[in-house]
Amino acid sequence: MRLFVAIALPEDIKANIGALRGGIPEARWITAENAHVTLAFIGEVQSPMMMDISLALGRIKFPSFDMDIEGVGVFGSNKRPRVLWAGIRPTPTISLLHQKIVTAIESVGASVDDRRFRPHITLARVHKSPYEKVRHFLIDHALFKTATLPVTNFTLFSSHLSSSAAIYREEISFDLLAPVPS
Predict the structure, then answer these.
(1) Hey, what long-range contacts does 54-57 have (CB within 8 A, 24 or more apart)?
(2) Is 2-175 a domain of CATH 3.90.1150.10?
(3) d(CA 168, CA 157)
(4) Burial of 35 (0-12, 13-18, 19+ CB in 10 A)
(5) Which entry of 98, 120, 136, 141 is annotated as an active-site residue?
(6) Average of per-residue pLDDT values in the chain
(7) Does the active-site annotation cover 36?
(8) Of 3, 21, 26, 55, which cross-links 129 as Cys (Cβ 3.0–4.6 Å)?
(9) pLDDT for 51-89, tens place per residue?
(10) Residue 180: pLDDT over 70
(11) Dmax over Cα atoms in the chain, in whole Å?
(12) Are 11 and 47 in contact (CB under 8 A)?
């Protein structure tokens, strides 16, 4: 089965993300219900390895934190965009959580996609879309922002590919530690 670790998003944030859909011909939009922030992509593993990964992730001790979703952008070049995304304000906290998750997964012999970590929410695949339409979308939604999201857990998801879209299933969630009162 294909696995990844992500921050699941609440329904109100998914609705805000879903409202961005449209206006770009040939775009393959991700359904709002599948919106998430990937922390680590693992890929195909056998069931026993999934159990080992789950146990390793369960040992992570990390405090809850706030996350800001703001702006839109693309992966690929500006002239040849491939993926349209909503941004996550990069912070040392989310980067450290990512690193702890990668270390835990690798400690049990599994590997993680080694692309540079850039927290985001994938909105659409746009490699066949007209450049001008993508550019206008980026301009029109440059100031996109949601309410600050308290992150209190992360989730191990499985991904099942179908002919229409990927189907994500929450396998197990891992609670973060409550913040220490000041």
Answers:
(1) 54/156, 54/171, 54/172, 55/108, 56/104, 56/105, 56/107, 56/108, 57/5, 57/101, 57/104, 57/105, 57/154, 57/156, 57/172, 57/174
(2) no
(3) 6
(4) buried
(5) 120
(6) 94
(7) yes
(8) 26
(9) 999 999 999 999 999 999 999 999 998 789 999 999 999
(10) no
(11) 51
(12) no
81-88 and 120-125: which strand pairing? antiparallel
Q: Alpha-carbon distance 57 to 3, whole Å?
A: 13
Using the structure block, give the residue that is written with the tokens 């349209």: 84
The burial class, CB within 10 Å (0-12 / 13-18 / 19+), for 28 is middle
- In whole angstroms, give the CA distance from residue 112 to residue 31: 25
pTM score:
0.93
Tokens of 30: 């991700």
Could you confirm whether 160 is annotated as catalytic? no
User: Do 175 and 156 meet the contact criterion of CB atoms below 8 Å apart?
Assistant: no
pLDDT of amino acid 179: 75
